[in-house]
Design brief:
The protein has 2 domains: 1-81 and 294-307, no CATH class; 84-291, von Willebrand factor, type A domain (Rossmann fold), CATH 3.40.50.410. The strands form 5 sheets. Strands 8-7-4-9-10-13 form a 6-stranded mixed beta sheet, with helices on both faces. It has 10 helices and 15 strands. The radius of gyration is 42 Å and the shape is rod-shaped. It starts with a strand and ends with a helix. The protein is of the alpha/beta class.
Length: 344
């Protein structure tokens, strides 16, 4: 769409017409007051011709300059922008303990990682407008997906996650927090969030969780920790009979609570898939998605077009005058020479 930034300046366009009309009116009034012969003789003695035509060249020049000053602009169609929401990093434990099959979905026994991945899918879909990133950790922590608005890519990389990719025998919780802080520290201070899911305790890595939490606190990163795993599980054994065990005895809840409290977050305990789903819903409430639609309309300034045309017309007029003026100056000399020859 074509528009002007200062359209009120276009009111100046008819100004030359008004000036010309007033000048013509003044000349007509003078002609009516004086005899026509005296008016014609006065004009001839002054070597002038009565100009009754409109100065179209000057008007065109004025038209172009006024249009240029009014700042014509081409404005394109509205383009939607991603919402400037939160920068949310999800860190998931993929150590060997996540293979424990103490979760249920649709009456089917599944391991902890499968449950986390299945319920995380709905959580990711609801985060439209946020930048999501994915960290996986076991014996070491690594970045699976950097922060991005492309939630489908995050989901795809999560689906491809397998236990043991980062080592299966130990758990580096502190290093995973440190990696998340490194990725989030340069983001907007109010929107740095880490969700940490684990079923164990920190037993390897350079940083311990409390040290990493101090770094997160200093960087303004809010950490929500989730402890995953059932508290009771019946193990069937034909020789010793059925017995009940605690599959989450290695879960270090005290450290996870301390990490969350130090950074202004919360600790959640997910003993089954229902509780895990409720936790995801609670996180949506604590860190709601901004639903403000943002868009912009691309624009391109066009003032230079009429300005260049005005300059080109001015240069053309100067060029024509330069070429024509010498001929006019030579005409009186030529006439005088011819007159002298004729008199001789």
């Amino acid at each position: 769409m074509f528009e002007f930034q200062w359209p009120w300046l276009l009111l100046l366009l008819p100004l030359p017409l008004l000036v010309w009309w007033l000048e013509e009116r003044k000349q007509r009034q003078q002609a009516l007051r004086a005899p026509l012969f005296l008016y014609w003789k006065m004009q001839r003695q002054q070597g002038k011709k009565v100009k009754s035509h409109f100065p179209w060249y000057n008007f065109l020049l004025w038209l172009l300059l006024v249009i240029a000053v009014a700042r014509p602009t081409w404005v394109g169609d509205s383009v939607a922008l991603p919402s400037s929401g939160r920068d949310l990093m999800v860190s998931i434990d993929i150590s060997g303990s996540m293979e424990m099959e103490d979760m249920m979905i649709d009456n089917q026994q599944i391991n902890r990682l499968v449950a986390v991945k299945a319920l995380m899918k709905e959580f990711i879909e609801r985060r439209d407008g946020d930048r999501l990133g994915l960290i996986l950790f076991g014996e070491q922590a690594y970045l699976q997906t950097p922060l991005t608005f492309d939630l489908k890519t995050v989901q795809l990389m999560l689906d491809e996650t397998e236990i043991g990719l980062a080592g299966s025998s130990r758990t580096a919780i502190g290093d995973s927090i440190g990696l998340a802080v490194k990725r989030l520290k340069d983001r907007d201070a109010e929107n740095r969030v880490l969700i940490l899911l684990t079923d164990g305790q920190n037993n390897t890595g350079v940083l311990n969780p409390i040290q990493a939490a101090e770094l997160a606190e200093h960087a303004g990163v809010t950490i929500y920790t989730i402890g995953v795993g059932a508290e009771k599980m019946v193990v069937r054994n034909s020789f010793f009979g059925n017995r009940t065990i605690n599959p989450s005895k290695e879960l270090d809840e005290a450290t996870l609570k301390a990490v969350a409290e130090k950074t202004g977050g919360l600790y959640f305990r997910a003993k089954n898939t229902q509780e895990l789903q409720q936790i995801y819903a609670k996180l949506d409430e604590l860190e709601p998605v901004e639903d403000l639609d943002q868009s912009y309309r691309p624009s391109k300034a066009l003032f230079f077009i009429p300005l260049l045309l005005a300059i080109a017309l001015s240069l053309l007029k100067v060029l024509i005058r330069t070429l024509v003026s010498p001929k006019k100056r030579n005409e009186p000399l030529r006439n005088e020479t011819q007159q002298e020859i004729h008199n001789a």
